[in-house]
Write a structure and sequence with these properties.
Number of strands: 16
Distance between the termini: 37 Å
Shape: globular
Largest sheet: 6 strands, mixed
Oligomer: single chain
């Protein structure tokens, strides 16, 4: 084996944000996306290529908007009133967000006949939004694992805290949404039953655990994915309910898209028909990444990807090149080639330290960072070379 690997390729994974028109409900985005990708291939300025095993990611909001997947506050209120015809209701462990939860809470409060106890975790919510100064809690006599605080007690102990990004006082903001709302700060789910046994678990990634704890303790419990999750022609709906929803206007929320899996397969088939290529497709929402400054997780969606084609199942099968090189100082190039070639033989020493996450979580985060949340106008992302490795030369290409 040669000790120096020769290749005509110098670029590995590459990512392109693909501009799309502003779409509206009912638009055929399968045709729009496939046509725009081919137009991007044929353009004279920064043309892209299309290859087998490329990945096309579509942001969840693009699909949801084409589906017309919206609910009003009245829709949420009607669902809540059917689930809880009377009495007080607790809202357990919501995230602190104007965009992601404030309007959901408004719809809930509208549908509850009694009081709404909004039970906030402290010192941070589930995704890292702080509700107080953590050092102040550490230096206090409060035990966050057992102590329950009213809003007044919290203010007396810790004062007013403003979110480091938005400047919002979330306690005040949530309390002012409706006159029947009362703020409580606690961390033990069972303590919620001291106020009411009717509960809407509003956490995202811990919702099943919280629901199980409260049900076992005698609660009547629903989660956010139980709200507006039933197929209907009267308004939008999603398998995820109002989880993953976003503010649309003062009276509407855009839901997470529905039937994402079927959409991905349909787009994959259309791309195959138009290009002859086997291209993978996924829908992506929030990527699972954390801001190192604010310690906030950018992950308010229930999953990174609600739908994807079969080639994106599972986790990457990779070796860690630097581990091989460190253990074969005399001839690292040859050792790396051998390790990559033989990496399916069951010896996993050189996979130690590689990222043990789902492909869709990794690629979805890459797509989310590329698209951003502003005015780039690229709700579709093309990822090339993701399944290649150090030994992959220029692939055989079937041009569109």
């Amino acid at each position: 084996m040669n000790t120096t690997y020769s290749t005509n390729r110098y670029v590995g994974v590459s990512v392109y944000g693909v501009r799309m028109p502003i779409i509206k409900q009912g638009d055929d985005i399968v045709s729009i996306i496939s046509d725009k990708l081919i137009q991007a291939y044929n353009t004279s300025y920064q043309p892209i290529t299309l290859d087998n095993c490329d990945i096309v990611g579509i942001t969840e909001s693009f699909l949801a908007r084409a589906q017309g997947n919206y609910v009003t506050l009245d829709d949420i209120a009607d669902d809540i009133s059917q689930k809880f015809p009377e009495g007080d209701v607790a809202v357990a462990f919501p995230i602190l967000s104007r965009n992601r939860f404030a309007k959901i809470l408004e719809g809930i409060a509208q549908g509850v006949k009694g009081k709404v106890y909004v039970c906030l975790s402290y010192p941070v919510d589930e995704v890292g939004n702080a509700i107080m100064d953590e050092d102040a809690l550490f230096n206090s006599d409060i035990n966050p694992y057992s102590d329950i605080l009213s809003k007044l007690q919290f203010r007396e102990k810790f004062g007013v805290f403003h979110h480091p990004i938005t400047g919002s006082d979330h306690i005040q903001m949530y309390e002012e949404i409706a006159p029947n709302i009362e703020i409580v700060l606690l961390n033990n789910p069972k303590d919620i039953l001291k106020y009411t046994n009717q509960i809407i678990v509003s956490s995202i990634h811990a919702r099943y655990r919280h629901k199980a704890i409260l049900q076992q303790a005698g609660g009547i419990v629903y989660t956010l994915d139980d709200i507006c999750n039933t197929p209907t022609s009267q308004h939008g709906w999603s398998e995820y309910g109002v989880l993953g929803s976003n503010y649309s206007d003062e009276n509407r929320l855009k839901l997470f898209p529905r039937d994402s899996q079927a959409f991905c397969k349909k787009l994959q088939d259309k791309l195959k028909q138009k290009t002859g290529l086997a291209i993978e497709v996924m829908i992506y929402g929030d990527g699972g990444f954390k801001c190192p400054k604010t310690h906030i997780w950018e992950f308010a969606d229930p999953v990174v990807s609600p739908g994807y084609t079969d080639g994106l199942k599972g986790m990457p099968n990779e070796i860690k090149i630097k581990a091989v090189a460190d253990n074969h100082i005399d001839n690292p190039e040859e050792a790396i080639q051998k390790a990559i070639t033989e990496k399916n033989t069951g010896d996993d020493f050189y996979t130690l330290g590689t990222t043990p996450r789902q492909i869709t979580d990794l690629v979805g985060s890459l797509c989310d960072l590329t698209t951003g949340s502003g005015d780039k106008g690229t709700p579709v992302v093309l990822v090339k070379g993701y399944f290649d490795n150090y030994l992959t030369d220029i692939p055989e290409r079937i041009r569109a």
